[in-house]
Design a protein that fits this description.
2 domains; 10 strands; 6-stranded mixed sheet; 4-stranded antiparallel sheet
Length: 270
């Protein structure tokens, strides 16, 4: 929920940016972006091309270092920490262009997702084979259940490279969920998929929220944003331009000039 007077989230911040800056050869992709992502909500990160959205997600997930500023998961600072450390704190992400392990089967892609597997320990290999077998069985059962949920069960033995673009999107989300995130960053999960699949993915994202996962998603489809997102952050020229509900941002002149423009006018006419 948002505070009715300030338009800011009433919930505690699951994820926070404070003055994040990143430049490439002197050109700022992100230039002092600051925002909070409310816990247990779906937040959209929107803005024109080149606004710095993916760069921010790369920094938050540990895929890229920032030049200045700070980032936090709750009260734990994650600024410039490596991605595997951030993942162990519960933050995972997907990519605009899916990064499946193409030579592995769909099921195998799922089974590599959980962290700290017992079979990774040499001691366990020698002394606790039963523990490894039990955990592998549990992981396989959970992976198959998730593949069933995401409509990929019949493709469990298919090489991931052979999936359609939409199926790869589903696999990437399912694989992230397999790792039990508390925060999930989605980079344009609806890009390049058909309308029926957009509806399906939107339902999966809402379901994640209902199971307590905080979601931050880059999304250009404002119909999707309006339908499933609780809160919106607008970036422009690497800075946070505005935050709030999309219905409020439609009335923000700066936002309209920077990004929404004719899209808002078109949406208002329906």
């Amino acid at each position: 929920m948002l505070d009715s007077t300030t338009g800011r989230p009433e919930r505690a911040a699951a994820l926070r940016c404070e003055g994040i800056t990143k430049a490439f050869q002197g050109v700022h992709a992100v230039n002092g972006a600051s925002f909070d992502v409310p816990e247990g909500q779906i937040t959209a990160l929107i803005g024109p091309n080149g606004a710095g959205k993916t760069t921010v997600v790369n920094i938050l997930s540990g895929a890229m270092r920032c030049d200045s500023g700070r980032a936090f998961i709750g009260t734990t600072e994650i600024t410039n920490r490596p991605s595997h450390t951030i993942a162990r704190l519960g933050l995972l992400r997907t990519f605009q262009l899916s990064r499946e392990l193409g030579g592995l089967t769909v099921l195998e892609n799922m089974l590599v997702a959980p962290a700290d597997q017992a079979g990774e320990s040499f001691v366990n290999l020698l002394l606790r084979p039963g523990l490894i077998e039990r955990q592998e069985r549990e992981h396989a059962e959970r992976a198959l259940a998730l593949l069933d949920t995401y409509g990929l069960y019949d493709h469990r033995d298919t090489r991931a490279r052979e999936l359609s673009g939409g199926q790869k999107k589903l696999l990437e989300i399912a694989r992230a969920v397999m790792a039990s995130p508390t925060i999930l960053l989605l980079d344009e999960p609806m890009a390049g998929v058909n309308p029926a699949l957009i509806e399906l993915i939107g339902g999966y994202i809402v379901d994640l929220k209902e199971h307590g996962v905080t979601v931050l998603m880059i999304e250009h489809n404002l119909n999707v944003v309006e339908k499933i997102c609780d809160y919106v952050i607008v970036l422009a020229e690497g800075r946070t331009l505005a935050t709030g509900r999309l219905s409020e941002l439609r009335e923000n002149t700066d936002v309209v000039k920077a990004y929404l423009g004719e899209v808002i006018d078109a949406g208002a006419s329906h």
